[in-house]
Write a structure and sequence with these properties.
Length: 158
């Protein structure tokens, strides 16, 4: 999706729209990073030997801190805060997990597109091949793609 939109905007030559899209993409990445970090903190919290009431209080505190972290982040954005509505609804593990599930392989598929030279047809064939792998093998391959993407962040991809 991101590659397709970026290419479309570049071909249109609308530099203002391209800048706005890049700004929004960075905000999205910041939002996801904020949520994934909260999930990790909650995971560590659940591993602690706490009584149910203590855990409930600690989780409520973590969710309140997550909202505060978002407010500080979004205050730096100025206009177009973007995720205020998302944070306006009650936070719970299911909502955090949903974002994590959706975002989990985003960088892996971006790396796959790069490896296919930015060719969408080749990318779709490679993604279909991945879908046919047994789950453990597919996850291993996707983790390797994610790691490669993290190591090569500075390289340009078509």
């Amino acid at each position: 999706e991101q590659a397709g939109v970026r290419r479309w905007l570049e071909r249109r030559g609308d530099q203002a729209a391209l800048r706005a899209w890049r700004r929004d993409e960075q905000r999205h990445r910041d939002f996801v990073a904020l949520l994934l970090a909260a999930r990790e903190r909650l995971k560590a919290l659940y591993a602690e030997p706490l009584a149910v009431d203590e855990l409930r209080v600690a989780k409520k505190r973590e969710m309140a801190e997550l909202k505060q972290r978002y407010r500080r982040l979004a205050d730096g954005w100025g206009e177009g805060r973007g995720f205020d509505e998302w944070f306006g609804r009650p936070l719970n593990n299911a909502r955090l997990a949903l974002v994590g599930t959706y975002e989990q392989w985003r960088t892996a598929f971006g790396e796959l597109l790069c490896r296919e030279g930015g060719d969408f047809a080749a990318f779709h064939r490679a993604a279909e091949e991945l879908s046919r792998l047994p789950p453990e093998q597919r996850d291993r391959r996707l983790r390797a793609l994610s790691a490669a993407a993290d190591q090569g962040r500075r390289r340009s991809c078509p």
